[in-house]
Amino acid sequence: VTIRVLDLERRAGGTSTSGEDGVVPYPWGAHYVPMPRRDQPLLLELLAEMGAVVSRPDSGFEGAESARIRAPEERLFIDGAWHEGLFPSSRAGAGDHAELRRFEHEIEELVGFRDARGRRAFTLPVRDCSDAPELTAFDRISAATWLRENGFRSKLLRWYVEYACRDDYGLSLERTSAWAMLFYFCARVAAPGQASAPFLSWPEGNRRMVPHLRRPLGERLRLNQLVTDVVPSADGVELVAL
């Protein structure tokens, strides 16, 4: 099998790009990887090759010291002080907290969902997600519509959910599909009631992974290539590229 990788940019990596200020590198785009589950052996193998995860006899794999993010992983600066987490609890009233708990219950229900073939509603990689009609229907409405149809009115909850959409997709609630929004909250949670998988990251973000993936490609990686058409054939694939 002949493999070639055509990349639009002047250097490989796509959104896993970074900059350098003369002291430390910093990410421009993708900047973390959720700790893989045991049923994701290929990703575990890749991260182990990079030294990002290590094997433990009693607990399987865990993030290497150099790749783990120290607590608090996420925090907000509100009213002159730092607050752990991404929900603005310091400004929330009883109604806001009630809606947050109800939203989290909806997420737990979806995390526990299994279709007739035993597939999760949302998981990584995306190709393993269920294609049950009641789930794919979420891709035809926006996150804003889903929140409204499910009676979520809290401005703080909506801010929190939109933060997630802007963080991962660069889009507002109106421009993010409900499927993509729910994927964000569900895919990294192994089971109902559990916390989201911890993050692995590096100063330059996911740019750290690019040289490791690029090395075995050698000259099979071609940069500055704009692919305009892909046509599968019986014995290969034909590309139109500029």
Please tell me what the overall shape is: globular
- Please give the order of strands in the largest beta sheet: 1-10
Unreliable runs, pLDDT <50, ≥5 residues? Answer: none
Query: How far from one another are the termini?
Result: 23 Å
If helices are DSSP runs of H or I spanning 4 or more residues, what is the number of helices?
7
Structural class: alpha+beta
What's the gyration radius in Å? Answer: 20 Å
The H/E string reads: EEEEHEEEEHHHHHEHEEE
Question: Helical proportion?
Answer: 25-40%
Instruction: Give average pLDDT, whole number.
Output: 93
How many beta-strand runs?
A: 12
3D structure, described in words:
With 242 residues, the protein is of the alpha+beta class. Helices cover 28% and strands 18% of the residues. It is built from seven helices and twelve strands. It has helices spanning 41-49, 94-111, 133-136, 143-149, 155-169, 178-186, 210-214; strands at residues 5-6, 18-20, 25-27, 33-34, 53-56, 60-63, 75-78, 81-84, 199-200, 221-222, 227-233, 236-241. The strands form six sheets. Strands 1-10 form a two-stranded parallel sheet. Helix 4 packs across helix 6 (178-186) and helix 5 crosses helix 6. The model has no long low-confidence stretch (mean pLDDT 93).
